Amino acid sequence: MTHRDPTGPVCSLTLVALLVILSTEHPSLGAGIQLRDNGYDGVLVAINPQVAENQSLISNIQEMITEASFYLFNATKRRVFFRNIHILIPATWKANNYSKAVHESYEKANVLVTDWNGAYGDDPFALQYRGCGQEGKYIHFTPAFLLNEKFTAGYGARGRVFVHEWAHLRWGVFDEYNNDKPFYINGQNQIKVTRCSSDITGIFVCEKGHCPQENCIISKLFKEGCVFIYNSTQNATASIMFMQSLSSVVEFCNASTHNQEAPNRQNQICSLTSAWDIITASDDFNCSAPLGGIELPPPPTFSLVQAGDKVVCLVLDVSSKMAEADRLLRLQQAAEFFLMQIVEIHTFVGIASFSSKGEIRAPLQQINSRDDRKQLVSHLPTTVSTEAEISVCSGLKKGFQVVEKLNGKAYGAVIILVTSGADEHVGSCLHSVLTSGSTVHSIALGSSAARTLEELSRRTGGLKFFVPDQSNSNSLIDAFSRISSGTGDIFQQSIQLESTSENVKPHHQLKNTVLVDNSVGNGTVFLVAWQTSGPPEIVLFDPNGRKYHTNNFITNPAFQAASLWIPGTAKPGLWTYILNNTHHSPQALKMTVASRASSSAMPPVTVEAFVDRDTTSFPHPVMIYANVRKGSYPIQNATVTATIEPETGEPVMLKLLDDGAGADIIKDDGIYSRYFFSFAVSGRYSLKVHVSHSPSIHVLAHSVPGSHAMYAPGYIANGNIQMNAPRNSVGRREEWAFSRTSSGGSFSVLGVPAGPHPDVFPPCRITDLEAARAEEEVTLSWTAPGEDFDQGQATSYEIRMSNSLQNIQDDFHNAILVNSSKLNPQQAGTREIFIFSPTFFINTPEYQLVRETQDSHRIYVAIRAVDRNSLKSVVSNIAQVSLFIPPNSVPVLARDHLILKGVLIVIGSIGMICLIIVATHCTLNRKKRADKKENGTKLL
């Protein structure tokens, strides 16, 4: 909708940072990166099991990070460096005196080395999903980038690239270039390159031959094919977030060198704040001071660790509390599914249980066949104890005894702890859990489960789940389905396609379809679970119409579950299932479908759901994310729905978006996001995400949507242009459909008021405001925020403008108010367009002088949304526009000249001015004889 005037994602609430003080006596082995005495410890680099063994890869990683450490130390003005790095060697590589991995796993890595880079070619990148100043998820390198020296020509030394990506990952700063908007017109009507700092010099070159005449400049804009080639020798020392490959660049842009006019992501997301200001405001810098003296820090030390045998022990609560709300039955169904389908081949598995005391139910047994799986299932508990008292520590002690039978230690083992009761003494065994070297995944059943369970998981790097006491919840099976070996080998892991549960009336049915796409199909299983005795009538149709009945399923009456394994590779397409409740009372019926990759040549689509924080306090929202990818290809245009289950009350459905607005930081990067603030009660909340994709929608990954180091197209050395090899083509377009489900674990909310409460949720910040001039009007466009954060419909907008960038940034309230009284906000997520005439500036004598002198008059515009209770969002990003550019003129760079492509003569000193004038005159005369398509523009 377009509105005419006739005459935040950061929201305005500051999200609470919940600090957890770790024990100094027993620091967490699973705590990840730690900064101590200016040095980073615990950085984990993991090599994917699919990467071919190559010892040069290890040595190149070590060289890269060693170089990065010294570069980082100087760039941060002697603040931080890398002290200790762990490199996780995949189990698929031959043993080579590597240490045994303890808590290290591929899923916990800060730096990933893997193929299947897809949309990114061989670009190194950091996956960022949160706002300015917030940590990212991981850094990604391909083996080709680390092994092939050709990439250093465009990216620069690998150590410099690592520091660029580290700044994304650790400090939440963003790129200072913009491939989509490589040029802009500044306030002096000059063509400028989107960069930081603006002191970096070079020339414009018509790279692709599309530029007519002899100029890259057409009607005040740059045509496609014009690129900016940089001088290899520079005086500029910034910035690492722009072009780390330049030898002179040794620091980040600061307040004095930052280019606030450049239309880059750093300015947009960080509100025109320099990268250095963001970095120095981080916890790392608040807790450290520069090292004195002139000596460099020691080079980092590297620990090479390799995962050993996969060892898992189920530690299950069998206290009398498990008899409530069908908890034991649901545990049996979920544990059987885990043992029969989820846990990977060759894994050692054992089982322990506990109430007030612990018990070993099954010693470690390696899974090599289906019979091995069945044998383990037979040891699952079938009854509960008469004791209500529980001792989690007793259960964990037995679990450790189970896993230690293999190698004498629990290093690298996985404990899956399931409990429903309260235990005030869990902390008494925290030390033994931490020193065991195991990872604890915790599953809390019901609202009375011990609140300290999450601490065990957090401190050991494990996952945590909550399962509400709802008969129609499938959260327990979803939790077990999410737990993997942590090796990173997606081709061996089970992938959940469907998870549905519904209370079905007597003689009614649950009917639905699930899509098996061609990236999966091996080891496909359909699991049906029910609540009362006797299975429902089951009917299943494959895509070809073949019909399966109840008698085709393997039924376990004791666990009230039935399974159907499809031999070979399941047929791709829609499978239809019908569950008929033949009983005379309503019951919960559940369907779960899982599969594995169909081929090692094609990575399957994966979904990872997570939240931005483990705990929040009302009214601060939780941000929900779903990372949807095929290999590393971001999947666009998918339908992503989150289901959030509280301890009591009905579940909440929430559609997640990848539109670059609201909670979503970057559009089309495959990370779908949304604010969640519909808190019913205080307590735990369970998260599950369902993703579907229509075959009629294109999957398009033609660009690099993440944060990545800049690839220089070329450079100028000794007056000659040297073009680098073009980057690998990353375009890809496919048409296919899929369906996925994934648990996102749990989070907790504190302080939710009972009963009705006043509105405390403002609209979120607008982060994508753009401005363009048409004649003497300005067109603004942005994505509408909501009444509450990114949901609903705001009441009004407050638009202000100024001819001073600093004024509108620092004093928005006193900037000139634009009349937007007839602008009615649309629903959140809708693209808004508003056209107005900046008459305040046009009618001033200064503007009339601008027209006479054919100069440019720059204005800056910002906006904020207001809801019906007058709650206001944070001020948006600032857009800028030139009010007047003479229609027949060409924007020029001060003192710029046209020159022959390939020739850039910059010689001499002040004492040789005359010689420079003669050389320039000769160059201009020669231009007329040159091929008109071969040209450039000098930038001084």
Automatic annotation (TrEMBL):
Membrane topology: Single-pass type I membrane protein
Domain VWFA: 311-483
Subcellular location, record wording: Basal cell membrane; Cell junction
Keywords attached to this entry: Autocatalytic cleavage, Calcium, Cell adhesion, Cell junction, Cell membrane, Chloride, Glycoprotein, Hydrolase, Ion transport, Membrane, Metal-binding, Metalloprotease, Protease, Signal, Transmembrane, Transmembrane helix, Transport, Zinc
Signal sequence coordinates: 1-30
GO BP: any one term: cell adhesion
GO MF annotation, one: metal ion binding
Membrane-spanning segments: 898-924
Family matches, as InterPro entries: CLCA_chordata, CLCA_N, CLCR, Ig-like_fold, VWF_A, vWFA_dom_sf
Principal location class: membrane
GO cellular component: anchoring junction; basal plasma membrane; cytosol; nuclear membrane; nucleoplasm
Biological role: Plays a role in modulating chloride current across the plasma membrane in a calcium-dependent manner, and cell adhesion. Involved in basal cell adhesion and/or stratification of squamous epithelia. May act as a tumor suppressor in breast and colorectal cancer. Plays a key role for cell adhesion in the beginning stages of lung metastasis via the binding to ITGB4.
Record family assignment: Belongs to the CLCR family.
Name of the protein this chain belongs to: Calcium-activated chloride channel regulator 2
Organism: Oryctolagus cuniculus
Lineage: Eukaryota, Metazoa, Chordata, Craniata, Vertebrata
Gene label: CLCA2
